[in-house]
ATP-dependent RecD2 DNA helicase (Aminomonas paucivorans DSM 12260), 738 residues
Amino acid sequence: MGRDPGTASLEDRTSLEGELTSVSFRDDVTGYTVARVETSRGEEATVVGCFPLPSPGERLRFEGRWKVHPRFGPQFDVSFCRAEAPVSEEGLIRYLGSGVIRGIGPVLAARIVGVFGADTLRVLDEDFPRLREVPGIGERRREEFRLAWEAHRQRRGVLLFLHDHGIGAATANRIVRRYGDEAERVVRANPYQLAEDVEGIGFATADRIALKGGLDPGDPARVRAGLLFALRKAAEEGHVLLPRGELLRRAGDLLDLTADLEPALEGALEDGLLVQETFSPEPWKGEARGVYVPSLCRAEEAAAARLRDLLARPGSSEDPREAQEDLGKLEASLGITLAPAQREAVLAALLSRVVVVTGGPGTGKTTLVRLLVNLCEARGESVLLGAPTGRAAKRLGEATGREAKTLHRLLEFEPHTGRFQRNASNPLEGSRLVVDEVSMVDLPLFSCLLSALPRHGSLVLVGDADQLPSVGPGSVLRDLLASGAVPSVTLQEVFRQAEESRIVRSAHRILRGHLPEWENTPELQDFYFVPQEDPVRTAELVVELVSSRIPARFGLDPLLDIQVLCPMHRGDAGAQSLGARLQHALNPFGRELRRGSRVFREGDRVMQLRNDYDREIYNGDLGRITWVAPEGNLLHVRFEGREVPCLDEDLDCLMPAYAVTVHKAQGSEYPAVVVPLVTQHYVLLQRNLLYTAVTRGKRLVVLVGSRRALSLAVHNETIRARFGALAERLRHSGGMDE
Ligand SMILES: Nc1ncnc2c1ncn2[C@@H]1O[C@H](COP(=O)(O)OP(=O)(O)OP(=O)(O)O)[C@@H](O)[C@H]1O
């Protein structure tokens, strides 16, 4: 029984029973609710917390504590809530007539309750045919009600069951959406399945459900799930495999078990859930065995095999002298003299089936690709151009004057099956494939690309190995270079025009471990560092720069041209907090839509977070919100001149984009970038992150923040090594997988 807030000891855990009368606030994503309740003693109380929204009329039993809010007074802070069927006739009518059961409105509800009174719910549950006693309900309608009532009961039961297992409202709804009536069965049979199928449920939640359901912590099923999860998590961090010892350590930590996990690992290997490969010499400090999830092992094996096959075949030109002559003629006709390394790269592309060309900004990659394409076409080859992102493909197309596609489009990705239509049995039609921005290509995509390459095709891979590696697993570009097995050319010379850009000079200095140079002179520069030690002041300064100083001095539009790039999400100068500050400064008014902590406002700059092949918008695409529906559940975004409606789940893949992380900006370029650097972000202050951020700016780069943070970033060379064995497989061709 609830206590009177006036007399209760405010910190005691207690319970409260009553009926919901109104909802003042509800966040559909988290389930956070502020509501008024009429207690069973007829008093009004405010309840606050995360719980499934009950249907009107249901009786609620809350557990929690009374707290005193400084402004709103006593509130019941809910830690648990269970909905119980209403008993009063009034409650029953409100419950049945609230719309929870399709087809029953308040009038019909009153008629039903009028006949069965307090016994209504029992009749509906156990004695449905008696509904005939209610006047005015025909046979067909009755059957419709029966089905609707059944569905409602099941859904309600599942939601309550999930709630009992500590699953919040939003997640519970996602589970029900995914499994329907099967939800309870799946959760009971194998809670770990949830972590695989349902977004927002990780291993920890699934594990909590399993342990709550009585599973022994050392149960082999649990250990197996832990091993699998450790590998999946590693893949999210970019690893293709984990050395066996490392996997056992990580799984032990995850499961909080000191027991021997070897037997469970052996079982998982025997059942083919995991795959183990042994490499020689030992690649990982005394460890020779790497454990994979099968798909990644297959991808690595296939990529290595296909590359070895390409390396064993002669290039499209077998005569170096002839190739040199052709190139010389082309240079003369275009009035370009390639630098020796550029020439070496073009010739290597002609003389081998696969070549890697890497170099920083302004080292002439695009120029040599243009010549190579010309040369190949003149020799009768058909050249395909591709890049991992839409923006990179567009740039490649513009630079070469040819059509360039995203790799997904080139390989004819089918969103519904998740497969590529171009593959080994239906290869690409073209004799040479040139791929730009290869640093962003992960191992699974690389493997698919290789298998779709025609048997007699050639591959030119161009990229900057100092950029951040791909988001997905693997470090393809670095591994190819590290293997020493694939012909490769590193471009180091920065050409004069590019050298004049301080952005380019700074980027190269950063790579060499030197602080960038800047001068705050009256003449406009393209690279600045604005020192500020305090993180909060840094955030304020970023807002000031973006909203007034840069637009005034450089004539750039803050909403279109300037991108703030943060090393991290969190912290005073992190993407989250800065994004909100910038939104407030740049676009404070207008119709808005709230989604959890995100606010979308008409006029906002937004970023798409996932590839959406149906609507043809891709991860990292930027757009502007052009319209928000007055009732606030739909908005329109203009992406590249195209108006795209975004509704419900689409909104989960959208975020305001005034400030984004450097990782999100990979492969994109912006007229101006502003980068806050604060020591709070020390974990991510790494050279390749700073380098990636700086090279995203075309006309202006402004670093703002602490000198120490800048110095930390420049000097921190540690690139977290990604576990994988592509380089090993290539180095020791004919090795372990034969
Ligand atoms: N051999 C060359 N001689 C003189 N100038 C060159 C040569 N190669 C390239 N350049 C010039 O250097 C500049 C940078 O070249 P390019 O755009 O090809 O480099 P990039 O490596 O693709 O650069 P980014 O990665 O920044 O796009 C261009 O202005 C280009 O005209």
The longest strand covers residues 13-26.
